[in-house]
Amino acid sequence: MDPVQIIFILIYMLTVLLAATKFVPMSVAAMIGALLAAWFGLLYGVFEYGEAFGFIDIRLIALLIGVMIVVEVAERSGLFRFGALYAVKLSGGNPRILFVSICLTSAIVSMFLSDPTAMLLIAAAMATITKLLRYDPVPYFISAMIMINLGGTSTLIGSVSNMIIGLQAGISFTNFIGYLAICELALWAITIFVLYMLFKSRLGEKRKLPEYNPWESVEDKKLFYRSILILILMIGLFLALDTLGIGPEAVALGCAVLALALSGSDPTEIFKKLDWETIFFIAGFMFLVGGLGSTGILLDISTQLFQTVGQSQLGATMTTLWASGLASSAVSNIAIALTFTPIITAVPGLGSAAVWSALILGTNLGGATTPLSGAVIIMGIGALKREGISLSFTEFTKVGIITSLIQLGFASFYLVVRFNLWV
User: Which residue has the higher pLDDT, 31 or 90?
Assistant: First the structure.
């Protein structure tokens, strides 16, 4: 390992440390890393100035912005809050049905919303209902956090890490579902059952649900129906990408323009609400990883990481699943996805559907292990704190470790069966 590679590894470690400790915002940490990578990369001739701009995948940034705009318009219509409130109403005040309803709603909403946005919506509904019914909110909040993280695994647009991996691996929207849909449905059922068994004694007794009308949360019914149509159109076009001959970023941006045109909202207000923190974090971290790759260190790491498994797809898949899963329990899964994708692509023949699926599952399933795993956990704990309830690191981690290990264990079994890895 030469001195330049050591410098870039130190820059990477510094960036991850700054982001993980929240010493500075994640976006600032990534931009500090990118700035240092640019400075030392140009200084030591690791890459040319013009080459450096190619480190940032504009297609990914476009896909992110397009989906965020569509989701922001839909959120303003009250669509997602309506769905959450309606699901709660269907429970009829039965705590067990309410628990399952919240878990399912959390997972479904996070299939289309960013995890932090989904957490905000679900937390608002849960805080209201658990307070009126005098239920202990902790089981509901912890379960919602875990299910929101899990639900984001289901589709190409369900989480940022999915978009990163999907674009890099060339996995279409339909192939993504084909690889992981059965696994996701099974994981939903298993996780809800495990969470229920852990919390059943704390769910409370059946009480009469207070009267409320979910439609009261919808202020603009015209925008509500338009949002539904735009979401259906976007998903339909994603499903038809193979025949359209265009990329998912084109669909996302096209639907974003349509949403802006039909919403009647001030675009400036919508743009303000976009998750620019995540966008700048991804751009900065992509630049850092691109610079790291130019030193040749990622190829060296990938060779060392997978040399013990040789040509074994089973070994490569299990290594990817568990390494990314355990890493995502302590570091943002976005950073893990950005780091692992070039490592996998660096080894010829390694990037099979099984290995890419393992990376998708690993980066997502490890994201709800500890309060350090991701923003959704921090936001959920913050929502509980606003209700006057303090959730300790240990209390959440006990549940997070159990559910994550069970999820990763089942994912291991699924990948072996789905891709015939025992052959």
Answer: 31
Residue ranges making up the domain that contains 205: 3-55+79-217+275-418
Q: In terms of Cα–Cα distance, which of 285, 26, 332, 326 is closest to 159?
A: 332
pLDDT for 302:
65
Residue 130 lies in a domain: yes
Q: How many residues does the chain have?
A: 423
In a domain, 22, yes or no: yes
Q: Are 384 and 392 in contact (CB under 8 A)?
A: no
Q: HSE, CB side, 13 Å, CA atoms: give it for residue 25.
A: 12
Mean pLDDT, the chain, rounded, equals 82
Query: In angstroms, how far is the first alpha carbon of the chain from the final one?
Result: 37
Phi, psi of 178 (to 5 degrees): -60, -40
Domains held by the chain: number: 1
Question: What is the pTM (predicted TM-score) of this model?
Answer: 0.72
| Residue corresponding to tokens 């409320």 | 212
**Of 263 and 374, more confident:** 263
Residue labelled with tokens 């207000």: 269
